[in-house]
């Protein structure tokens, strides 16, 4: 990463992200100094987010579990190379995304869904209420069908477009962070995001209002 | 109808946000952690191939100029010293280095030493005479092997190189010159003006040369005496009968010849008598 990118990132990142990055970097320094157990704190902190990214890219929980573990192992093996030019979170995401993309390219023809159960909580209850007013078994079937259709539509996207829309809409990364993770410009990120949304709207039109 | 009313408010972003609710159960993380621990241990025990460490090695750019400078300096120094002549390599072998070496620099001192020694003296090494007369610098070693006393065409170069590059010789000569300039009276009183400073630098060459020739001659003489003792005629003890008779007859002839010479010197009568005896 060149100096201009680091400077740009230092300007655009929020104070909370900067504090989080500093805290992560202190833990990374402990690991680099030989405190291997300190890496467990980083695993506990990021395993769910990392797993979520990989799962939404693969739509397979077993593959997602293995790939997330592989990403953590790669990060642990290369922890001495991390020099703090970017945040540990971004660095870890880049490893996970690259590992997943490599896996998806190798298994391009194999598509097998193994989906997690949809947990209903306060954040998504309102959306689910808007989607259906059914109760009991019918509601569960409807939600299951919606979940499968959505994952199917996502898998129809190319790997790059899928990655962009997953990182932006599901994981909440900014355009610049996605560009840093994927190694492309922010304009490319916006373009891919726009195309992916249009494609998904066409695929999910049955469940969306016209 | 009611379904379409509800779904009309839902966007694609809302549907994608539902994906955040797809989370694994709590027991999933127990298995995840156990498997990750096993993989981590396996990765710790696994030996990484050497080419995976190359990027890390080249990433340390700060060390590259230092290393390159060190390699360059070492190469320059090694090239510089490898081009210098090696005097030891011109000699006959490293194993012969135990022999004492004396370098003769001054033709005058050699010629004077050769002139003062008598021609029949055993101290004179006759094999060195041509080299001395020719005025060559000769490398002389003590020892019985003729190879050490043989003078070849490379020897003067070696001797000159050794004498010119001896640090002790240079320092002694410099000290003598400095002393001669600073205190000439003391210099003349103590050392006299018979020898030049160049000759005084090598005082060990003359005695060593004499010792070398003496040891050569002594060993040669002892060899010849031993050979003579081995082949000395002893007709009384070892020779067979016909040989003994032949030897005694020859001795008798020699004795008669001797008498003949002696008598012939005295007069004709005795020579007549001698003729009668034969």
Model description:
The complex is a heterodimer of chains A (210) and B (278). With 210 residues, chain A is mainly alpha-helical. Chain A is 73% helix and 0% strand. In chain A, α5 packs across α9 (175-182) and α9 (175-182) packs across α10. Chain A is globular. Mean pLDDT of chain A is 82; it is low at 1-12. Chain B has 278 residues and is mainly alpha-helical. Chain B has 15 helices and two strands. Chain B has helices spanning 2-7, 12-18, 26-45, 54-59, 63-82, 107-116, 129-134, 146-149, 155-164, 167-182, 184-191, 197-201, 205-231, 241-266, 268-277, and strands spanning 101-103, 139-141. The interface between A and B is large, with 48 and 36 residues.
Q: What descriptors fit this protein?
A:
heterodimer; A: 210 residues; mainly alpha; 10 helices; B: 278 residues; two-stranded antiparallel ribbon; 15 helices; 65% helix; disordered N terminus
């Amino acid at each position: 990463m060149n100096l201009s990118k680091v400077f740009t990132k230092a300007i655009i990142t929020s104070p909370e992200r900067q504090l989080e990055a500093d805290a992560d970097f202190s833990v990374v320094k402990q690991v680099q100094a030989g405190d291997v157990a300190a890496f467990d704190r980083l695993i506990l902190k990021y395993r769910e987010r990392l797993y979520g990214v990989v799962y939404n890219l693969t739509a397979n929980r077993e593959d997602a579990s293995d790939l997330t573990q592989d990403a953590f192992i790669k990060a642990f093996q290369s922890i001495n190379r991390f020099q703090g030019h970017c945040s540990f979170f971004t660095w870890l995401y880049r490893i996970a995304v690259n590992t997943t993309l490599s896996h998806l390219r190798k298994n391009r023809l194999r598509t097998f869904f193994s989906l997690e159960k949809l947990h209903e909580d306060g954040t998504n209850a309102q959306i689910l209420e808007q989607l259906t007013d059914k109760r009991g078994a019918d509601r569960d079937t409807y939600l299951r069908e919606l979940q499968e259709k959505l994952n199917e539509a996502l898998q129809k996207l190319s790997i790059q477009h899928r990655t962009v829309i997953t990182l932006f809409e599901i994981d909440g990364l900014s355009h610049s962070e996605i560009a840093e993770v994927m190694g492309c410009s922010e304009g490319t990120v916006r373009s891919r995001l726009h195309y992916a949304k249009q494609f998904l709207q066409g695929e999910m039109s049955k469940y969306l209002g016209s | 109808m009611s379904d379409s009313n509800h779904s009309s408010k839902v966007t694609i972003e809302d549907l994608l946000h539902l994906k955040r609710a797809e989370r694994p159960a709590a027991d999933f993380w127990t298995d995840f952690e156990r498997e990750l621990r096993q993989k981590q241990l396996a990765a710790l025990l696994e030996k990484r191939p050497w080419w995976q460490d190359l990027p890390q090695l080249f990433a340390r750019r700060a060390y590259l100029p230092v290393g390159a400078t060190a390699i360059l300096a070492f190469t320059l120094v090694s090239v510089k010293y490898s081009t210098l002549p090696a005097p030891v390599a011109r000699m006959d072998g490293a194993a012969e280095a135990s022999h004492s070496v004396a370098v003769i620099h001054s033709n005058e001192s050699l010629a004077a030493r050769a002139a003062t020694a008598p021609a029949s003296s055993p101290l004179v090494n006759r094999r060195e005479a041509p080299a001395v007369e020719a005025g060559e610098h000769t490398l002389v070693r003590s020892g019985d092997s003729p190879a050490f006393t043989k003078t070849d065409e490379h020897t003067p170069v070696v001797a000159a190189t050794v004498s010119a590059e001896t640090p002790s010789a240079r320092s002694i000569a410099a000290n003598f010159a400095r002393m001669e300039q600073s205190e000439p009276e003391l210099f003349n009183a103590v050392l006299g003006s018979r020898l030049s400073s160049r000759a005084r630098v090598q005082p060990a060459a003359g005695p060593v040369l004499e010792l070398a020739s003496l040891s050569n001659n002594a060993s040669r003489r002892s060899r010849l005496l031993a050979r003579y003792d081995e082949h000395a005629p002893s007709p009384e003890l070892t020779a067979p009968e016909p040989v003994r008779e032949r030897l005694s007859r020859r001795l008798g002839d020699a004795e008669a010849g001797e008498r003949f010479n002696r008598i012939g010197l005295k007069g004709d009568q005795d020579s007549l008598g001698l003729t009668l005896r034969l």
